[in-house]
Amino acid sequence: MPGLFEALSKVPPQKKKVHTVTIQGQSMVVTLEKKLEVIRHGEDAYHWINEKEFALKPKPKPRTQYPVLKKSGKGYGFEEGDIHWPNKIEEGGEAWLIEQE
């Protein structure tokens, strides 16, 4: 094994690892922590703020509307006020309506 140490001394030092992310077609060199964050959320979840900075896209606000039990012109009459037991349809009863924002 006389040539082992000579061969090891001639091996070039390893280059430093470069971490890049590609967001909307643009690549950028970032730290390992930032790269792991982008991988965790996905590259589609980010947008560019300026040429050197990117951030998470804002989450869309939920626009689901749920019906609410309200008095209406024609609606249900409930057995002993229990909404799970409608027993008639009457004038001035209650109906499930979606509130307008």
Helix/strand-derived category reads alpha+beta
Strand content: 35-45%
- Number of domains as seen in the coordinates: 2
Instruction: List the uncertain runs.
Output: none
On the 0 to 100 scale, the average pLDDT is 89
How many DSSP-defined strands? Answer: 7
Helical content stands at 10-25%
Biggest β-sheet: strands ordered side by side in the sheet:
6-5-7
Distance between the termini: 82 Å
- The total count of helices amounts to 2
Biggest sheet record: 3 strands, antiparallel
Mind telling me the C-alpha Rg? 32 Å
Q: What can you tell me about this protein's structure?
A:
The protein is α+β, with helices and mostly antiparallel strands and 101 residues long. The chain has 2 helices and 7 strands. Helix content is 17%, strand content 42%. A hairpin with a 2-residue loop joins strand 1 and strand 2. The longest helix has 10 residues. The protein starts with a helix and ends with a strand.
Features:
101 residues, alpha+beta, 2 domains, three-stranded antiparallel sheet, two-stranded antiparallel ribbon, rod-shaped
List the helices and strands and how they pair.
Elements: H1 4-10, E1 19-23, E2 26-30, H2 32-41, E3 46-50, E4 53-56, E5 67-78, E6 86-91, E7 94-98
Antiparallel strand pairs: 1-2, 3-4, 5-6, 5-7
In short:
With 101 residues, the protein is an alpha+beta fold. It has helices spanning 4-10, 32-41; strands at residues 19-23, 26-30, 46-50, 53-56, 67-78, 86-91, 94-98.
